[in-house]
Amino acid sequence: MVKACVRASLDLQPPPITGAESLHVPKAVFACYRAAETGRTQKVG
Fold first, then answer.
1. CA–CA separation, 23 and 5 (whole Å)
2. Would you call 6 exposed, middle or buried from its count of C-beta atoms within 10 A (0-12, 13-18, 19+)?
3. What pLDDT, in 10s, does the model give residues 1-45?
4. Residue 33 and residue 14: Cα distance in Å, rounded?
5. Which of 13, 19, 39, 44 sits in a 20 to 30 Å window from 4, CA-based?
6. What does pTM read for this prediction?
7. How far is C-alpha 23 from the chain's CA centre?
């Protein structure tokens, strides 16, 4: 994955994931924090 990202940054290949896909990770992490704070499940959107 790292190699693919470096190659994409050098315009040698397309990115392995889209910007929209990469935003899903922090949304999921923050939902986990909210769930831990509230004791309730969270939707990741």
1. 15
2. exposed
3. 899 999 999 999 999 999 888 899 899 999 999 999 999 999 997
4. 33
5. 44
6. 0.61
7. 4
